[in-house]
Amino acid sequence: MSEVVKLVELTKVYDLGEQRVQALRGVSFAVASGEFLAIMGASGSGKSTCMYILGCLDTPTSGQYLLENVSVGNLSRNQLAEIRNSKLGFVFQGFNLLPRTTALENVELPLIYARVSAGERKKRALEALNRVGLADRAGHLTNQLSGGQQQRVAIARSLANRPAMILADEPTGNLDTKTSAEIMDIFSELNGQGITIIMVTHEPDMAAYARRVITFRDGLVLSDERNPAPQQGN
Amino acid sequence: MEILQSLKIALRALKANKMRSFLTMLGIIIGIGAVIVMIAIGSGASQMIADQIASIGSNIIMVIPGSTTSGGARTGFHSAPTLTWDDVKAIRNECPSVALVAPTARGAAQVVYGNMNWSTLVQGITPEFLQIREWNLVAGRGLTEADVEGARKDCLLGMTVAETLFGSEDPVGKVVRIKKVPFTVVGVLERKGQSPRGDDQDDAVFLPLTTAQRKIIGTQFPNTVGAMLIQAVSEDRLQQAEQEVSSLLDQRHRIGPTKERDYSVRNLSEILAVSQQSAQVMSLLLGAVASISLLVGGIGIMNIMLVSVTERTREIGIRMAIGAKQRNILLQFLTEAVLMTLFGGIIGMLMGVVGATVVSRLVGWPTLIASQAIVISFLFSGGVGIFFGFYPARKAAGLNPIDALRYE
Q: What is the rounded CA–CA span in Å between residue B193 and residue B204?
């Protein structure tokens, strides 16, 4: 299988005036296409920083980040925006949908920035909503939806541009156990369809769905384990 | 397409905060409205003066008799009949820069027709008068050389007099009595309107100068004339004509170190040009004052846009994470600001037009709404949006996506 992500000796230093915080101290790992990876670790372990760099929202201080064999470590803001738009899909803890906007419009958003024509945009957005089982709620405003439904809209949005991988940052952090399981089932299902997923979480229950778990501590990879029997949806 | 999307987003954002958007727009509405009203008042005033200048005729100087000293008391202008027919002839023959000379005489008299009567200005003129004043007839004919030489009892009526005495009747050929002397109305003059001094120029009756002097106004000094209207051959020879006329009259009246001038020369167009200039300065000042309110409105836009950027930091973060480039974000907020100022501009324009009409109706000031003023203020309101919207939009576009996403 080809590598979607390859990190080589990645470091990140935050310069907060007098204080210098070493968030990543040399992280190396690779993610193959079609993997379902969970990144775990206590707060301050560097897992979020790693997530931001993987998501092209931040750039590393040193080291290399290859996304689909292209180095994206030191690109300009606009180039990074383009990569986020075309190759990555984000799912956040707080859903991060636009208020006073319909589910369909939220899912269309990445396609707007990709300059996809209106007709094609609608078609692809509906398709993505269908994949998360929300096609019948396309016209609802996001604030009329439940938390689980909102997160499913967010997943549909991350799928809309047919990305190389989906990055999920504590996707179930704001949800109850039952809804969390529903969301994780969707991830498992998408992964089953061949989509690469990288998820940051601190809940072992959620990490149990992943086929591989990387644990961070103090800016370094502590462990990198395969999960022989990931939890499956019902 | 990108613009279309930005427009859609901007409209939604404005709708989400209707009251706030309206209050912010109000600054622009008042600003643009004030600019339109002020410019309308200013250009109305200059237009009025320009019309007055045109109503006098072009390239005109006036020679006014009078001001003699008798027994230490100096009399005013028009007080002494110091100009004569010989002066008129001399100016006609000896001043190359002078095209026409029109001697006049003025008096007041009651004009009677049937059971109607009207006290009005009686002015003795020669045929050149109407030519110099560029005053046309609406009916009948003008006064001729023969009328003046033969001192015939023909007269022309100003529009006001014609309307007052005759109503809808045609005055031409009718006989009116002026100081009991019957005169035949040979023509009616077109309406001239107000003079620069505010008199009604149409409230007058015009007689041959000779007839007027002998029968109506009367003068103890035969062969004299009243004020003269003189037209120069062209605008650039106006000053030369003035000089020629005064040196000729100085010579003929033997004006020297021991004798004061017994006439005076005035250049009417110059006086009016000055008042027109002051009207233009006035309208510029009015416009400047109004622009200040537009500036304040612009600052209001900037203020609200900054608030809006702060409020929507998270939204900006989401958009950036999803792939919006800095340019997209900049355009989005700029569109919002420009949309607000353009809406404000259009409403302000309508209010301005209404306001100007109300001012001219209620206060009676003439106003003139130039189409350029409307186009310019429309463009200007858009410009205000870009100018004051740019800083907040750039601030939004410059946000760090991570910080924006984390913003609570």
A: 12
**Number of C-beta neighbours around residue B128 at 10 A:** 22
Overall size of chain B counted in residues: 408
Q: What is the pLDDT of residue A13?
A: 92
- Reported ipTM: the value is 0.92
Closest-CA distance, B345 to chain A, in angstroms, reads 28
Helical ranges in B140-195 per DSSP H: 145-149, 159-166
Domains of chain A: 36-58+76-226 (3.40.50.300)
Q: Which of A115, A97, A24, A154 is nearest to B405 (CA)?
A: A97
Residue found by looking up tokens 């110059």 in the block: B270
Tokens 């990144």 sit on residue: A39
Would the CB atoms of A113 and B315 count as touching at under 8 Å? no
C-alpha span between B180 and B216 (Å, rounded): 9
Pull the structure tokens for residue B214: 């002998």
How many Cβ atoms are within 10 Å of B18's Cβ, its own excluded? 9
> Crossing angle of helices A147-160/A177-192, nearest 10°?
20
Residue ranges of chain B with per-residue pLDDT less than 70 = 1, 67-80, 196, 219-220, 269
| CA proximity to A46, closest of A24, A30, A20 | A24
Q: Could you tell me which of A230, A219, A220, A199 has the C-alpha nearest to residue A38?
A: A199
Tell me the pLDDT tens digit for each residue of A30-58. Answer: 999 999 999 999 888 889 899 999 999 98
Interchain CB distance below 8 Å, A81 and B326: yes
Q: Which residue of B has its CA nearest to A56?
A: B321
How far is Cα A210 from Cα A227, in angstroms, rounded to an integer? 7
- Residues in chain A closer than 8 A to B328 (CB atoms): 113
Helix/strand number for chain A, H first, E second = 7, 10
First to last CA, chain A: 28
Structure tokens at B40: 């309308």
Which two structure tokens, joined as six digits, stand for A140?
Answer: 């609802």
Residue of A85, A91, A95, A141 to mutate, testing the B interface (most B Cβ within 10 Å of its Cβ): A85
Is B324 close to A81, i.e. CB distance below 8 A? yes
DSSP B354-392: HHHHHHHHHT-------HHHHHHHHHHHHHHHHHHHHHH
Phi/psi of residue B191, nearest 5 degrees: -75, 130
| Closest CA relative to residue B109, chosen from B180, B12, B18 | B180
Alpha helices for A9-91 (secondary structure H)? 47-54, 77-87
Query: How many beta carbons lie within 10 A of that of residue A78, not counting itself?
Result: 12
Each residue's pLDDT tens digit in chain A (234 positions)?
Answer: 588 999 999 999 988 888 888 999 999 999 999 999 999 998 888 898 999 999 999 889 999 999 988 898 778 889 999 999 999 999 998 889 988 889 999 999 999 999 889 899 999 999 999 999 998 999 999 989 999 999 999 999 999 988 989 999 999 988 999 999 999 999 999 999 999 999 999 889 999 999 999 999 999 999 999 988 888 755
Integer Cα distance of B73 and B140 in angstroms: 47
Residue B225 CA to chain centroid, in angstroms? 33
Query: Could you tell me what percentage of chain A is helix, strand and coil, using 3-state DSSP and rounding each to the nearest 5?
Result: 35, 30, 35
CA dist., res. B265 & res. B243, Å (int) = 9
> Pairing between strand B228-232 and B98-103?
antiparallel
Distance set, CA A161 to CA A139, A141, A199 (Å): 20, 21, 19
* Cα dihedral B137→B139→B142→B143 (10° resolution): -140
